[in-house]
Amino acid sequence: MEWLELIEGTIGHLAWPVAIFLILNQFRAELGSAINRIKSVRYKDAEINLEQEMMEIKNDAEMAGITIAYPPGSFAQDSVRSIELAPEWVFIKSWQEIENVIMGLRSKLPEDKKYKGPITLVVQRLVEEGIIDPTMASLIDKLRSVRNRVVHEDSDVTRGEALEWLGISRSVKDRLAQKLA
Fold first, then answer.
1. What's the CA gap between 181 and 174, in Å, rounded?
2. Are the C-beta atoms of residues 40 and 48 closer than 8 Å to each other?
3. DSSP 131
4. Cα separation of 139 and 133, whole Å?
5. Rounded Cα–Cα distance for residues 130 and 179 (Å)
6. Is the pTM for the entire model greater than 0.90?
7. Could you write out the DSSP letters of every residue in 81-142?
8. Closest C-alpha to 71, from 176, 170, 177
């Protein structure tokens, strides 16, 4: 009799979790789609709106004459795989490539301005010397801000946003590299 009560109690405790799992499993595609449409997250006084920031970056890139759309097949396979596994890594890696080119451009600065400070100060000095224009500097600052937000504030990045980021960051890096050559 004790075994029967044990089985009955176990089934009673598992009924709701199993029912919820089955319902969620049945509607997983719809739930995934709904979650991917969430673009803004608010926690206490902080709000993250990645879609709006990406739109601003795209507008700035277009104003700077930078190509922002690339077919997914034009990106390195490891970048595309990273989007599926850990999209934040794509933001880290591509930003690092931009930083490397900016630090290379530092060699074009006069000796007294080759300060090894934060990237924002190097960009400011590159603008002062006319090596890059203020529009590009603004775009770089926004890219840095989005990268920081994605990496440090636990935001969910969609595949589309990561691909857009790859395209824009690649174009910015290429444009900066032209100035280095």
1. 11
2. yes
3. S
4. 10
5. 11
6. no
7. HHHHH-HHHHHHHHHHHHHHHHHHHGGGS-GGG-----HHHHHHHHHHTTSS-HHHHHHHHH
8. 170
Write out the H or E segment, with its range, that includes residue 20: helix 2-26
pLDDT at 130: 92
Asked if 149 contacts 48 with a C-beta cutoff of 8 angstroms, the reply is: yes
pLDDT digits (tens, 9 = 90+) for 29-42: 665 555 544 555 55
46-49 and 40-43 beta bridge pairing: antiparallel
163: alpha, beta or left? (left if phi > 0; alpha if psi -120 to 50): alpha
Distance CA 115, CA 122 (A): 7
Six token digits for residue 151: 């990496």
Q: With beta carbons less than 8 A apart as the criterion, state whether 165 and 55 touch.
A: no
Helix (H, G, I), strand (E, B) or coil at 49: strand
